[in-house]
Amino acid sequence: MILGPMALQALQSSGVAFRKILSHFPEELSLAFAYGSGVYRQVGPSSDQKNAMLDFVFTVDDPVTWHSKNLKKNWNHYSFLKVLGPKIITTIQNNYGAGVYYNPLIMCNGRLIKYGVISTNSLIEDLLNWNNLYVAGRLQKPVKIIAMNENVALRSALDKNLKSAVTTAFLMLPESFSEEDLFIEIAGLSYSGDFRMVVGEDKTKVLNIVKPNIAHFRELYGNILQENPQVVYKIQHGRLEIDKSPEGQFTQLMTLPKTLQQQINHIMDPPGKNRDVEETLLQVAHDPDCGEVVRLGLSAIVRPSSMKQSTKGIFTAELH
């Protein structure tokens, strides 16, 4: 296992505390990261960083083997599902919700933690195509990479996910905007239509994530913005200008992740027409409501996956 100096996730682990927690788990991880208010300062009700629960995601090449080893090491982490064994746990992980199996409310090294397990292949699929934007959405915000192996496909997918986040945000923003506007839009992508946010979780959550962490967002997205031919990035002033012509928007729409393109096509395609995706995207590029159509497409991805994942949580969490 190596600690990855990643250009795109240039946020190194603050070190020993996270790695000590990692040492309690089987080692075969293609990626491990920590996220949320226990890692990065947030304003608002969940701002007590010292006592906040630490959230982790562990990405594993072979979930059955990993869960098998973890059941031996950490039997008490699992709900009643543990009696069904690692194969059933992996089936539940892969086939229900967003491909993540969570063990919450675990005491580890004196800290309360929650950890999700996802297969490397499922994560790569989500990063590239935005099948459900669940873990891909987490990785559009600053996270702390604790461990990472030399999986080229995974690294490339992580980079593509960030580029897709920028392009999608551009389509929903005006011609000129601030860095903060952009980062708020990006941080909100995975909340578009998320029923937990709609049902009354702190409405200002996105602002609470972005405002104290502008520097971390800049670190994550700075190079992508400087290299993007469709944006003028005035770093000194923290301002950006983008091409909002139909041609510019069409170029952006054509590079969106596949699932988002399909959802846009589904929204715009009248019954019986069966137009191809490219034809629909050309129409959307000329539509004054282009940004709203993109937002509806996002909601169609995020809402079902967040509901399914939360339902799965009842079985993997509460019923110990």
Automatic annotation (TrEMBL):
<keyword id="KW-0594">Phospholipid biosynthesis</keyword>
<dbReference type="GO" id="GO:0005743">
    <property type="term" value="C:mitochondrial inner membrane"/>
</dbReference>
<keyword id="KW-0999">Mitochondrion inner membrane</keyword>
<comment type="pathway">
    <text>Phospholipid metabolism; CDP-diacylglycerol biosynthesis; CDP-diacylglycerol from sn-glycerol 3-phosphate: step 3/3.</text>
</comment>
<keyword id="KW-0496">Mitochondrion</keyword>
<dbReference type="GO" id="GO:0032049">
    <property type="term" value="P:cardiolipin biosynthetic process"/>
</dbReference>
<dbReference type="GO" id="GO:0004605">
    <property type="term" value="F:phosphatidate cytidylyltransferase activity"/>
</dbReference>
<keyword id="KW-0444">Lipid biosynthesis</keyword>
<keyword id="KW-0808">Transferase</keyword>
<dbReference type="Pfam" id="PF09139">
    <property type="entry name" value="Tam41_Mmp37"/>
</dbReference>
<comment type="pathway">
    <text>Lipid metabolism.</text>
</comment>
<dbReference type="GO" id="GO:0016024">
    <property type="term" value="P:CDP-diacylglycerol biosynthetic process"/>
</dbReference>
<keyword id="KW-0460">Magnesium</keyword>
<keyword id="KW-1208">Phospholipid metabolism</keyword>
<dbReference type="InterPro" id="IPR015222">
    <property type="entry name" value="Tam41"/>
</dbReference>
<comment type="similarity">
    <text>Belongs to the TAM41 family.</text>
</comment>
<keyword id="KW-0443">Lipid metabolism</keyword>
<comment type="function">
    <text>Catalyzes the conversion of phosphatidic acid (PA) to CDP-diacylglycerol (CDP-DAG), an essential intermediate in the synthesis of phosphatidylglycerol, cardiolipin and phosphatidylinositol.</text>
</comment>
<keyword id="KW-0472">Membrane</keyword>
<keyword id="KW-0548">Nucleotidyltransferase</keyword>
<protein>
    <recommendedName>
        <fullName>Phosphatidate cytidylyltransferase, mitochondrial</fullName>
        <ecNumber>2.7.7.41</ecNumber>
    </recommendedName>
</protein>
